[in-house]
Design brief:
It contains eleven helices and 14 strands. The protein is an alpha+beta fold. The chain has one domain. Helix 1 packs antiparallel against helix 11.
């Protein structure tokens, strides 16, 4: 019994040591803090080097990584897909819902970027077009009936406007009424009609395992009149898909990369170059630790309340969901555009036109259930957004294959101890409960970026 307890304690100590990532495990890299951050990514922009717009921020990152939107061919048949989207924050600065609106803009931009990835790989297209022309006689009433038509018109108007000066009152309802000749009083009649109908449908589906937001930029958009935007740059590659698979497939082992500083040291290096980086970071990122192993970090954001533990729990939930979405999210995008244009030529030479087109878009992203072993909170920050001053809570949750194995070993040892105590009557059974088993506008703001990641080894 004592040996088993020592074993469990030793495994727990090992797990905590892996989470702490002591500085002694890896020598500090040479160079500045920004150079250290560049080993694995981060927003390396100093206060005097902020881009003018989110579009410029995205272009700078692509230039640094030597990538372009779409498929990027690498050596030995290797390739990387890159996509980006952006969305405006609908809430004005100072709104109590600004942070919620900003988080919604991130979600919309990230899902749209995943849609772009799916469509670039495979889309099912369907389209149809038609044109129809109708010709009308364009004649007024026959001469023999014209007096009758004119009299009926006057009678109809007199019935509505009885006891009033006819012409003056008609002008209130019909400013074009001149009270002139009978020819002037008759309305123009359609002589021809042209109708163009076009329907285009697109459906794209992709199991986006391994896709993650590699860079996030926030600030004014030159393409949208300076409104505050959130831009997300998404990346996917076969190597990233392999990293994602290790989270659910414990039998898969990846080749180790060149060791980097411990994750917390990498965070400190990012902070040295960009003190506000946590305020601009959401979703999942992939890093390499001091052992050369991949670490998937999810960042979650929640509005501040008076209950700090609840805020941290809420942000932690969002961070773990980011890891889940990195592992097993399926994206299904449907787009339907219907263009309908109709024009009518009138007997007086004028033309009437109508735009009857519609556009519908639906993107569904759903992640499969995932048993996440070994995920642990490694960073918590409570502060305010530098631009909007919205109070926020940020939590970072990390996972690595080594931590998952340590957690699994500790769990088995603790489970065995629980079974022995239960058999010997040392652990009371929990009483069953009724719920047991239930499952089931222009922005005068600088552009800032959150944590980015280099793609040199993805």
């Amino acid at each position: 019994m004592t040996a088993i307890c020592r074993q469990a304690f030793g495994l727990a100590t090992l797990l905590l040591a892996g989470l702490n990532g002591a500085a002694a495990q890896s020598p500090e890299p040479a160079g500045s803090a920004e150079a250290a951050a560049a080993l694995n990514g981060g927003a390396h922009l100093t206060a005097g080097a902020q881009p003018a717009s989110v579009e410029t921020c995205w272009a700078d990152w692509k230039a640094k990584e030597k990538l372009e939107d779409g498929k990027n061919e690498k050596k030995n048949g290797y390739f990387v897909y890159v996509a980006h989207e952006q969305a405006a924050v609908a809430e004005p600065p100072g709104s109590r819902n600004w942070l919620v609106g900003r988080n919604a803009a991130f979600t919309y931009a990230e899902i749209s970027a995943r849609k772009s990835l799916a469509e670039s790989m495979r889309s099912t297209m369907r389209s149809s077009r038609s044109a129809a022309v109708q010709m009308f006689g364009g004649s007024d009433a026959p001469p023999s009936l014209r007096p009758v038509v004119e009299q009926l018109s006057i009678v109809d108007k007199s019935r509505v406007l009885a006891d009033k000066a006819l012409d003056a009152e008609i002008k209130k309802f019909d400013p074009q009424w001149s009270g002139g000749t009978a020819a002037q009083q008759r309305a123009a009649i359609a002589t021809q009609q042209l109708r163009i109908d076009q329907s285009i449908e697109s459906r794209a589906e992709m199991f986006a395992s391994g896709a993650f937001t590699v860079v996030q930029c926030e600030g004014p958009s030159v393409e949208d009149a300076g409104k505050y935007h959130v831009l997300t740059g998404l990346i996917w590659s076969p190597k990233l898909a392999g990293i994602a698979e290790t989270i659910w497939n414990t039998t898969l082992t990846l080749q180790r990369e060149a060791p980097q500083p411990p994750i917390r040291q990498q965070f400190e290096a990012i902070k040295a170059g960009n003190p506000d980086w946590l305020a601009y970071t959401m979703g999942a990122r992939v890093f390499t630790d001091e052992n050369g192993e991949r670490v998937v970090v999810g960042f979650g954001v929640a509005p501040q309340t008076n209950l700090m533990p609840a805020d941290r729990s809420r942000a932690s939930l969002a961070a773990m969901a980011a890891i889940q979405q990195f592992v097993s999210e399926r994206v299904v995008a449907n787009r339907i555009g219907k263009d309908a244009y109709e024009s009518r030529g009138m007997s007086d030479g004028s033309v009437q036109s109508f735009n009857l087109g519609t556009y519908n878009e639906a993107v569904r992203a759903q992640a499969a259930d995932l048993q996440l072993k070994g995920a642990a909170e490694i960073l918590s920050w409570r502060g305010e957004h530098p631009w909007s001053k919205a109070k926020m809570q940020v939590v970072a949750v990390a996972w690595s294959q080594r931590w998952a194995k340590d957690a699994d070993a500790v769990g088995r040892a603790m489970g065995a101890a629980e079974q022995r105590m239960t058999k010997q009557g040392g652990l009371p059974r929990a009483s069953a409960t009724a719920d047991e088993g239930d499952g089931g506008a222009p922005a005068a703001a600088p552009v800032r970026a959150g944590a980015a990641a280099t793609t040199s080894d993805f």
